[in-house]
């Protein structure tokens, strides 16, 4: 398991970036929202999900991430230069918190839910979770809790009840309106 930070301080792909974060307490969401502006990257990051290949990190892209208080997952919304959503990416976590420096983090539990539209999820990296269990990196209890969290997350995304979707859509619309 690896602790990951919202500011992506150790990501060598990024040549130049800007980072902001804000506390957000609003109906259905209490936690932090972060913005990572990828001003320049060494090379674009392309991924293939559900049989579609797509760029999710390039010059001028923005990664907006939501960290719910006490949550067991985070949501990263990857936006292109025109603030069009390229991908919704949920990281299942053992814990979501704040570093001593006040930077949001998550303890990554390997299993992820990815979507190209907000309500059509795909579970990925099950093999990474299975390997972590087999290698003794995580316990059987961690494994089972992670699988339960992923199943609940998949269902809440499919039926539109995951509160991060609504908050994320509102934030994207607000960003886009600010450009007009």
Automatic annotation (TrEMBL):
Domain of life: Bacteria
UniProt-listed PANTHER family: DUF402 DOMAIN-CONTAINING PROTEIN
DUF402 domain residues: 65-160
Species per Swiss-Prot/TrEMBL record: Paenibacillus oceani
Protein name: DUF402 domain-containing protein
